Task: inverse folding
């Protein structure tokens, strides 16, 4: 049984010990609150009339000061298929809001507040893990019927549907009920109010959208409601109709900011609430919308398809990240879906893309259990890589294919606990072995793939020095040769068949066995030739162009490579991506200007798209514009330093 | 009338006015030129070679902005060196300009650099003192705003007030503190040169007395001049947004630098005229 709140009972808990203390600013919390700690302790646990014995256990790290997991000795064994009824009497103290849960004074977010029976894994054993915080929760489905006493006239919101039952003096009694969910959370606030908007789902039926936010910002309700409605419709149309009657978004006040961005069934926290979204900087950012879209997607992964976040955080967070982005892109477009920052569009994939290749050691996504993640970015490992995997699959195999996989996955695994193997099996069934193999490979490789062009060069053709056979006669060419400049030129370079002859060096690759490489001479018809042939009397120069590209050596990540020539010709090569590099050599009457891998940027797993292309010579206005501007910026800095020192 | 006459005296060019203005302007241009060329070359060899940026619109979207920004560091060194060079030379320029623009003394019309070089050591000492003052003010502001941030959480201020307003006020007060320190440093140097002082220990007290006696002309005018120059340049840069704009932006920016140089000599003239006032004799002595 989990006693989650004990993660906040002391700074030696496993939750705090493993980096979360720094992330959630324990020192700041201790400066601001005399006693910010929270805990849960059972007073009695009974099976029938028998009082049960229990003890804290730490199977993951042996930490004797961690009491987030207890083991209960049953008085009577329960045979398979029978029902166990436990009466648990306990006391919880809410912490000051450190992470996810807690509060003080006039706002409380009450999550992980009750002793929670450990979920049963698909393998049939209890999920015996302490609370580490880096990854979080896993539970079985249950029907909740919760009665809450709140101060009179305070706002209240919770999982499921609720009603005010009665008022007794300064206390209001509320009852909330929800069937078939893995958790129950609620919130109360003196200065909070709830706005309800019914929404007709695109797939039929009505869902109540609740926006629970600080008083005085009612004018923002339509904006947040639109984000929730867009999330509901996108997920219902493309994945599965939303199965619950309500969805509640909590936008906490300042004192509750440490509870931001967390999901619970039918109920989640978005970004901060209040009028600050009206100011000029924040109003055009769709930051809160993107948090809402992400947390709403969690309603499916892992609230409905309840994967084990302790062990497989990449499943719910990865799928959620993907669908959160899909919601934003569907609703507001990819290029500016995340709004505008000082007038500059923010791409929905901004956070996924990197400026430099990932060089830190990263385990394979499938590694686990997830709560052991250390020394690498949980964000890029559990969120970005799975999300970009699905984006890549959608672009390689079709969006409808990926949507069909998710629709089938949720249909099969709703209200159950799948592992990633189950997802791969669904992918194979719904989309075929190629798609499943690609998805699987992306989770098994430790490194993030990076396609890149490493060199592009071109120089004028010169007859090779030495003896060159021309018309069956050897011709001696020395360094001072001033004869025929095209002596020895490959006849294919004249392109009389309107094909460009490309020499492709493939170094081969190894798996269980070796696949030998080779140099292939491949005639390729160019596309997009600008027919600027010039005067036939003009002397035509020929050039030897070379380019080298590098790749991740994956089996299921094929890319298109474009060679752009000065005469407008574009030669396209399809590379299967096997092998760590590939070299092109072309002799023709135009120089190679640029090489671009994956011009449509289908391989979203390659999170460094900038190095996918390289020119031979610089182009564009950015160097001159930015160098001028930066000089101005440094002149301003010099003015400042000179004025202040 | 006296005030108007003072203003006229300050604005009226002296024999060295344009020399001071143009030489300082040229300093800003020439010192940064190697940095400009190096940065341009660096960006050509990085961003310029990437087809990713081929069709992007200016000003850049945030994603492309991030990609370009990641390439900047490699080309920054000469720009930073140029800015440092401007600062050091401006100390020399200030000492030289103070002598050139001081019509009450019969300095030989020497070169700005040659005149100012001997004061560099003393001016650097003023800079060290300024840095210490800035550190002290920064720590004070950090303490105050740390306390306010705690209060914001405990008393549940709005998010707007807790983050935007507090940070805005912190930025404004930091700028104010820096500019106040800058005003002190400027006056310390003016007095050092005007009185040919070798010892600087009494300057802080002297300056406080000066600011009490002449709060507007000695303190507020200098403070405002610094603030206006920096703010106008910052707004111009902000509006420029790394976009092209052809030669127009360059000309405008060069003009702003020229105006900044003109205001700089104006500050020097104003300070010299005030410091030479008879009624400040007690302060001086």
Result:
């Amino acid at each position: 049984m989990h006693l989650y709140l004990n993660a906040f009972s002391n700074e030696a808990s496993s939750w705090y010990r493993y980096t979360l203390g720094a992330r959630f600013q324990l020192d700041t919390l201790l400066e601001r609150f005399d006693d910010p700690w929270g805990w849960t302790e059972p007073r009695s646990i009974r099976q029938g009339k028998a009082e049960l014995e229990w003890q804290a256990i730490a199977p993951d790290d042996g930490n004797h000061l961690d009491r987030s997991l207890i083991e209960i000795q049953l008085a009577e064994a329960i045979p398979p298929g029978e029902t166990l009824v436990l009466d648990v009497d306990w006391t919880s103290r809410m912490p000051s809001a450190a992470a996810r849960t807690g509060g003080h004074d006039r706002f409380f977010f009450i999550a992980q507040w009750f002793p929670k029976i450990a979920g049963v894994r698909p393998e049939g054993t209890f999920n015996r893990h302490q609370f580490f915080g880096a990854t979080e929760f896993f539970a079985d489905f249950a029907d909740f019927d919760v009665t809450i006493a709140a101060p009179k006239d305070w706002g209240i919101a919770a999982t499921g549907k609720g009603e005010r039952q009665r008022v007794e003096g300064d206390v209001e009694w509320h009852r909330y009920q929800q069937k078939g969910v893995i958790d129950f959370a609620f919130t109360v606030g003196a200065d909070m109010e709830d706005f309800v908007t019914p929404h007709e789902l695109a797939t039929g039926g009505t869902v109540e959208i609740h926006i629970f936010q600080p008083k005085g910002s009612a004018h923002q309700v339509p904006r947040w409601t639109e984000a929730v409605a867009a999330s509901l419709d996108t997920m219902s149309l493309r994945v599965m109709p939303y199965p619950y009657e309500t969805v509640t978004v909590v936008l906490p006040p300042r004192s509750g900011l440490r509870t931001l961005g967390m999901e619970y069934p039918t109920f989640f926290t978005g970004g901060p609430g209040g009028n600050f979204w009206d100011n000029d900087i924040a109003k055009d950012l769709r930051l809160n919308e993107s948090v809402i879209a992400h947390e709403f997607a969690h309603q499916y992964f892992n609230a409905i398809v309840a994967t084990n976040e302790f062990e497989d955080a990449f499943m719910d967070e990865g799928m959620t990240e993907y669908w959160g982005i899909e919601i934003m892109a569907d609703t507001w477009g990819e290029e500016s879906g995340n709004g505008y920052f000082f007038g500059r569009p923010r791409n929905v994939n901004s956070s996924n893309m990197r400026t430099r290749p990932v060089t830190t050691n990263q385990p394979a996504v499938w590694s686990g259990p997830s709560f052991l993640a250390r020394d690498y970015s949980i964000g890029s490992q559990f969120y970005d890589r799975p999300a970009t995997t699905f984006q890549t699959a959608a672009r390689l195999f079709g969006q409808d294919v990926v949507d069909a996989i998710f629709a089938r996955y949720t249909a099969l695994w709703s209200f159950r606990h799948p592992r990633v193997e189950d997802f791969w099996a669904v992918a194979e069934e719904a989309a075929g072995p190629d798609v499943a193999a690609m998805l699987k490979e992306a989770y098994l490789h430790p490194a993030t793939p990076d396609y890149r062009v490493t060199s592009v060069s071109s120089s004028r053709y010169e007859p090779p020095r030495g003896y060159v056979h021309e018309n069956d006669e050897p011709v001696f060419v020395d360094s001072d040769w001033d004869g025929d400049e095209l002596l020895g030129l490959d006849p294919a370079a004249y392109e009389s068949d309107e094909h460009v002859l490309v020499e492709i060096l493939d170094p081969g690759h190894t798996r269980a066995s070796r696949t030998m490489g080779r140099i292939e001479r491949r005639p390729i018809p160019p596309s997009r030739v600008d027919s600027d042939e010039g005067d036939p009397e003009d002397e035509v120069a020929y050039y030897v162009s070379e380019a080298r590209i590098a790749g991740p050596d994956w089996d299921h990540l094929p890319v298109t490579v474009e060679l752009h020539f000065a005469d407008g010709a574009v030669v396209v090569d399809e590379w299967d991506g096997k092998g760590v590099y590939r070299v092109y050599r072309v002799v023709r009457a135009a120089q190679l200007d640029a090489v671009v891998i994956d011009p449509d940027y289908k391989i979203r797993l390659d999170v460094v798209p900038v190095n996918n292309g390289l020119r031979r010579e610089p182009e564009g206005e950015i160097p001159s514009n930015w160098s001028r501007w930066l000089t101005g910026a440094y002149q301003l800095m010099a003015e400042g330093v000179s004025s202040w020192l | 009338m006296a005030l108007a006459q003072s203003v006229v005296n300050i604005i009226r060019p002296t024999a060295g006015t344009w020399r001071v203005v143009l030489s300082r302007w040229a300093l800003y241009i020439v010192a940064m030129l190697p940095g400009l060329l190096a940065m341009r070359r660096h960006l050509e060899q990085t961003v310029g070679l990437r087809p990713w940026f081929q069709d992007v619109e200016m000003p850049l979207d945030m994603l492309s902005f991030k990609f370009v920004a990641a390439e900047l560091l490699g080309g920054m060194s000469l720009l930073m060196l140029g800015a440092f060079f401007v600062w050091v030379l401006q100390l020399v320029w200030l000492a030289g300009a103070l002598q050139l623009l001081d019509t009450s003394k019969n300095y030989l019309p020497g070169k700005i650099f040659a005149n100012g070089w001997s004061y560099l050591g003393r001016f650097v000492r003023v800079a060290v003192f300024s840095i210490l003052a800035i550190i002290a003010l920064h720590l004070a502001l950090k303490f105050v705003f740390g306390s306010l941030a705690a209060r914001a959480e405990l008393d549940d201020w709005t998010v707007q007030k807790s983050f935007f307003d507090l940070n805005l006020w912190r930025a404004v007060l930091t700028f104010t503190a820096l500019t106040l320190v800058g005003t002190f440093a400027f006056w310390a140097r003016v007095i050092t040169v005007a009185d040919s002082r070798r010892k600087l220990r009494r300057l802080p007290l002297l300056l406080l007395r000066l600011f009490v006696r002449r709060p507007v002309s000695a303190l507020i005018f200098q403070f405002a001049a610094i603030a206006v120059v920096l703010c106008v340049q910052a707004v111009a840069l902000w509006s420029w947004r790394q976009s092209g704009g052809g030669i127009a932006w360059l000309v405008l920016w060069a003009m702003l630098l020229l105006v900044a140089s003109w205001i700089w000599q104006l500050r020097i003239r104003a300070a010299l005229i005030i410091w030479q006032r008879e009624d400040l004799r007690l302060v001086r002595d």
In short: Chain B touches chain A through 84 residues (CB under 8 Å). Chain B is about 80% helix and 0% strand. The first helix of chain B runs from residue 2 to 11.
